Amino acid sequence: MNLRYFVERLGWAAFVLFGSTIVIFAILHVIPGDPARAMLGPEGTPEAVAKLREQLGLDDPLVHQYLLWLGRAIQGDLGRSILLSQSVASLLGERLPITLLLGLYALSFAVLIAIPVSVISATRRGTAIDYGGRFVALIGLAMPSFWLGLMLVLLFGVVLQWLPVFGYVSPRQSAVDHVRHMILPAAALGSAYAAMIMETTRNSLIEVLHQDYVRTARAGGLTETLLLYKYAMRNALIPTITVIGIQIGYLMSGALVVESVFAIPGMGRLLVNAVLSRDYPLVQGAMLVTVLVFSIANLCVDLLYAVIDPRVGKA
Amino acid sequence: MLSTPISTASEPLLDVRGLKTWIPTRRGEVRAVDGIDLRVHAGEVIGLVGESGCGKTLAAYSVLGLLPPPARVIAGEIRFRGDDLCRRSAEERRRLRGSAMAMIFQEPLSALNPVFPIGSQVGDILRRHSTLSARQVKVRVLELLDHVGIASPGHVARAYPFQLSGGMRQRVLIAMAISCSPQLLIADEPTTALDATVQAQILDLLQRLVEQAGIAMILISHDLAVVAEMCRRVYVMYAGRIVEHSEVAAVFARPRHPYTSALLRCMPALKQDDSPLETIEGVVPALTEPEPGCRFRPRCRYAVTLCSDQDPAATELGGGRLAACHRATELGLPGTPTAVGADA
After folding, report:
1. Does A215 reach chain B within 8 Å, measured CB to CB?
2. Is residue B228 one of the residues assigned to a domain?
3. Does A220 contact B at CB distance below 8 Å?
């Protein structure tokens, strides 16, 4: 990987983040009427509205407000939640790691299932095993994650009683309980993701296995295992990484739903409550960290491209 | 050298008999290779010529065991060092590939893996067929790259395919093919995708390498001029069959099959006057349900009634010459007036 490519991608991520801050800041100001009144609702007394306006600095010029807000955000000060009267940063600090862990587990679950299945499907193309694997993947893709979550709860939690049905345990409290609580949510969130990764990897693997360089490797007498996992897989993973990157957004929005089903105190529930109660500082803060996570994930995907494919950023 | 009769004394290195490689399709079996006989002796360079789609490449894949499904060998023997490869397991054949027999492909641009450095790709084949240590493999890779005329082997070993020219890539592929000292090398149109100047260099390199190491080579080409320069014997293939076989000089001077004669007339390099370049009218017939009679008949200017009734068998014409034509002996087919390739 060369430095120019790295700097270019980093600059792009910074640009996206900067643009997002403008949009997120603007949310407060595109709602018709007075934001302070909108936040406080019909019960808000004129005094309370005036106080909130002053607290939010709504009487200052917009650019001034934005720069002030941005400056504070960079320093980690995202304001105070109106609903929970707590600093937004500390609220997010509690909730974000839980959602990130859930997303990470779901991603790992998806990759661990999808890659082996796609290899089996691609190498046995057109057989019953291939069709069976793809059929299961299609079901996984078609089933909404909340429905799948409920079914998993019913089977593993209620009928078999192997796993807890809801709640969250921090890994610091008990690593075993933490894992036990996260298995079903990760599976519910990850299965559609697994299906997408599987279908993409299978198709690109089939295409790659027909490439001339695979024939060259075969002509050199290389074993099918080496051929598949070294010569073909690395090329086949390029589209897979694209899908993983694009669908990170899906993973984050899916987390909101899955957190509700399994009563996990993550970002999802916090954000839903914030929106419902018009807690704008909290909404803005939550969106900002979401965008940040998304940008970092995309940056990682871009850099991963360069690691896998030497042509990226050099041609 | 040409005056010596075609060797029949020793057992051939490769002896293909009655090879049929068919491809099942919805419209029936495509008889891509339909009963060919082909012999290559140790250290000998032979040519296999014919138009695109005549089955040359599939015949080569059959020998190596590289047939892409659903193509498969349905009949015949492929004897290599006296041993019928069709009876060998996939694993046994895989062990032969890259070590005892190797192949060079037509498209050097796509034949190398884009995401691995050259050195790693050459090294993988060495590691597969030898017990060299990692260090020895590295040294051997550099030796091989140097051997195929790459000026800075260290640099090229670390480079990726996209950083090399077509000619360089073909040299790398040749290095891979000869890395484990094969006895048989199949070169499938090795220069077709290259610039004219590079073509000559690659052909020279191949000629030098096979001569030095005593490697037998099947040179697959549609270019008779290339074959004339490199080979002693040539097999002419048409629509899945061998239609003529002889020493190169004899084929050029006096072709016995109308198809060979037509091919010779199509060669721009051998044209003597300003007459427009000739083409062979018509197309290669569909190979699913061949009509009775000679497969070249629809395009043949010498065809008679017999040709549409009866499929001509390959007939021995003396001196190892074979032609599959009813009128092989009676037609005085035009060849090339001057003995081009006489020094081959």
Report:
1. yes
2. yes
3. yes
